[in-house]
Design a protein that fits this description.
Layout (H helix, E strand, L loop, with lengths): L1 H9 L11 H19 L2 H9 L4 H6 L5 H4 L5 H6 L10 H22 L6 H29 L5 H29 L2 H8 L4 H10 L16 H14 L4 H10 L2 H16 L4 H30 L1 H25 L3 H28 L6 H11 L2 H30 L1 H12 L5 H9 L1
Helix pairs in contact: 2-8, 2-9, 2-11, 3-14, 7-8, 7-10, 7-11, 8-18, 9-10, 9-15, 9-17, 13-20, 14-16, 14-19, 15-16, 15-17, 16-17, 16-19, 16-20
Length: 436
């Protein structure tokens, strides 16, 4: 049975063969489920609240629900260490994945039934619960993906994961808009819960990751303390770890600020749900896919350091396109151009950054270390968005706000240049390769 499968892959162009291997295809399915909870409490919830007449400061405050994703490192050690009863016999990663999928579906049902006009507090609680469930889902999915992919598949697998993430987030966001237009927002959220299924299907197809390694135990420490301390100790003892973490903290500030406030700009410029679905969702979807392909080619052709630096510059520049859109006003061509540029840049950055962060993870602490790095990547931007983005928009106006988000990306670029010159950009990944 393996020979026919190998034969049809062999007939494909060499450049496409890595994308149709089992593990990268599984990464595609995992990414689809990983992306949709983010969309449900991101642009989709922003649109829902704006259409219900909620003021901008309250709408942007809901982005604080994303902070749960930044706190996931607090319970990621449990995903690495705790064996679940009953379903745990199916494997550490798979059992946690199934539990997290159920948590996401239940949390979305709660958010579906919450009415913003009746009680914003209830909607806030529901959004936070979706964030907790989605963050847990992400912890398991990321660990499952990294441990399923072979080292030489990290670039391809990261690209496929990003394809899946975009497909899941865009499909769920578009489906929610269309269902809400025909029925209501409650029905929309309930229907979108089906997006937990691709990850479950991937886990049934691929089985428990063969590269998963049980975390070592330090008998001198209590179990939970050891689960938290060991992965952090291993990471911070690497050469340049603190400078690397500072880069991870700063490099996405501008990008996060721009993405989490975009729907407010579109609403104020008078775009309809249909226009948003066509230009933001539709054009953005295909532009992101193109960006992922370019990112994979850049990673392979330019190497880690140069491709990552190029992606940082492009992501910073893409925010300036929204300043131009805000200055010009309602324009479908202008929106398509801005969305296209931003999504190509984000697609490139997604592949390169995710592959790099994945390579930094020791296989004994995959869930905890990737949770630390991925959470750190957006925490500053989300804090600023949730606490002051609405006030900044009202004070500065959209044009100046997006110029500010462009400038906010510069420290991350400068810091990575310093990492490159100091020879630290690849040191941590090499250290992991030696220890894993």
């Amino acid at each position: 049975m393996t020979r026919p499968a190998t034969a049809w892959r062999a007939r494909l162009p060499a450049a496409l063969r890595p994308f149709v291997e089992r593990a990268p295809l599984g990464a595609l399915l995992l990414g689809m489920s990983s992306g949709f909870p983010y969309a449900m409490i991101g642009a989709t919830l922003t649109t829902r609240l704006a259409q219900d007449g909620i003021d901008k400061r309250s709408v942007t405050a809901f982005s604080l629900a994303f902070l749960v994703y930044n706190l996931k490192v607090l319970w990621a050690p449990a995903v690495d260490r705790v064996r679940l009863p009953w379903i745990g016999r199916h494997g550490q990663r798979r059992s946690w994945l199934w539990l997290a999928a159920a948590m996401v579906a239940l949390a979305l049902a709660f958010l579906a039934l919450a009415d913003p006009r009746a009680s914003l507090a209830t909607v806030a609680i529901a959004a936070v619960l979706v964030g907790v469930a989605g963050a847990t889902f992400d912890i398991v999915i990321d660990a499952y993906r990294i441990e399923t992919l072979e080292p030489h598949q990290l670039g391809t697998g990261s690209g496929m994961s990003q394809y899946g993430w975009r497909i899941g987030s865009v499909a769920a966001g578009a489906l929610a808009l269309l269902v809400a237009a025909s029925f209501d927002w409650s029905t929309a959220y309930l229907v979108c819960a089906v997006f937990v299924l691709p990850a479950v299907a991937a886990s049934l197809w691929l089985g428990e990751p063969v590269r998963h390694r049980e975390a070592p135990h330090d008998a001198r420490l209590p179990g939970f303390v050891d689960a938290v301390v060991a992965p952090l100790k291993e990471f911070f003892l690497r050469r340049g770890a603190w400078l690397l973490l500072l880069f991870v903290l700063l490099h996405k500030i501008g990008d996060t600020l721009g993405q989490l406030t975009l729907r407010l700009l579109l609403d104020d410029l008078g775009y309809t749900n249909e226009e948003i679905a066509t230009w933001d969702v539709g054009v953005g979807f295909f532009a992101y896919l193109i960006g992922i392909f370019i990112g994979g080619a850049m990673y392979a052709g330019l190497g880690l350091k140069r491709s990552l630096l190029a992606s940082l510059v492009l992501m910073a520049a893409s925010n300036a396109s929204f300043a131009l859109l805000a200055a010009h006003g309602h324009s479908n061509i202008g929106l398509a151009a801005a969305i296209g540029f931003e999504n190509v840049a984000s697609g490139i950055g997604g592949v390169v950054v995710v592959a790099y962060l994945s390579a930094l993870c020791n296989l004994s602490f995959t869930a905890t270390q990737f949770a630390l790095l991925s959470a750190a990547a957006s925490i500053v931007g989300r804090l600023i968005t949730g606490t002051s983005a609405g006030a900044l928009i009202e004070t500065l106006g959209y044009v100046n706000f997006y110029v500010l988000t462009t400038l906010a990306a510069l420290p991350g670029i400068v810091l990575f240049v310093l990492l490159m010159r100091a020879g630290l950009a690849e040191t941590s990944a090499e250290t992991v390769a030696q220890r894993s």
